[in-house]
Amino acid sequence: FLVRKSRLRGAGVDSFGDHRIAMAFAIAGLLAEGETEIAGADCAAVSFPGFFEVLQNAIVYQ
User: Fold this and answer.
1) pLDDT tens, 32-49?
2) Domain boundary assignment for the chain
């Protein structure tokens, strides 16, 4: 397993209905260059209803 340092770039990803994946890629997308689109992101409501609203508010207040 080899990890090389590189810049994080936005991409299209699929959560496959997994709320953890959706939320993890949403946070990663904040740090990425470019746009990140998450298919099935609404599944985040399973464990954190309002996740994207909270995330949006956090961005506004930084």
Assistant:
1) 999 999 999 999 999 999
2) 12-60
